[in-house]
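Its record is quoted verbatim for completeness.
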Amino acid sequence: MLASLLAAAAVFGLRHKERMAQLESMSFRDMLRYTAEGRDDIRITVGTIRDGKAEYTVYGRDGEVLPDTVYEYEIGSLTKTVTGALICRAVSKGRMELDAPISRYIPLPEGTRDPTIVQLVTHTSGYPEYYFEWEMAGNFLSGRNAFCSISREKILSRAAGVRMEDRDYGFCYSNFGMALAGAALEEVYDKDYTSLAEEFLQDTLGLEHTRISTMDSELGKNWAWGEDDGYLLAGALVSNIEDMLQWASLQMEEDPEYLALGHQPLRELHITQNGVRMDAVGVNWIYDGALGIWWHNGGTGDYNSYLCFDPEEGTAVVILSNTAPGYRIPATMMGIRLYQEGAE
């Protein structure tokens, strides 16, 4: 999901090519108006935290300001930041170790790839984004989420058959790697991911409107998921702007304190694609050294999102959109521009 979102929106026609060529000179408002142009159904909610104050605005067709309705959005791979927080909690409680091999928590046959937890959460395990399963073909033909109905058992079975060299690997964004890390998390707590995530979010953190998708959000066009899907922890959460601003605030305050572990640079990257910087990676958070922000984004079939925060300045930006990741200008590009404008 992140890999596809790092690219600018797909090119549709000459006029779009011209606009994309002007991307560097476009303001946040320019990007917003262009993305929302001519779309009656569009709802882009933009939130900020500055000087201790959280606020948000909802935009519709052509960037028009709408009433401040709190919509529910699929947040895609922002789910991974919650999975990362659960792993940080497990580490702080002595249930997991970042440097431990995955085989400490789930059984793997001798000779298979046995990466560490830190390799999985920093996407340096050597695993690809995903492995093809036959369910994906059926999902494609039926128009469903590609990862639907791929069970935890299927993930573990695939991992048991992977033969790779035992060496350092470069950054490769891997939903499969995160699914495997999540399977280990389920094992150490003896709970399914849905129970773990929702108890943590709603009971521990008070994020009452962040939950595993039940395919019924009011903006519609939701991804299908199965109850036992192994990829739930990589991209199945839905949330709203109030909860995501609170999530950003908790990250900046590092409350609970184990959230601080997620903001430690574990691997240096120094990658820049289309103006999006990845200088280091922590436990499922990416660091932009030029702006001094930690960030992540997410995307599903008809939604894309972005969250960044600067713990030193106490500022954050959240963008939630009911547009596909490749539609015109994605939330990531708009979010970076909005943060830059606020920092000037």
The longest strand covers residues 44-50. DSSP finds twelve helices and twelve strands in the chain. Residues 1-15 have pLDDT under 50 and may be disordered. Residues 175-189 form the longest helix (15 residues).
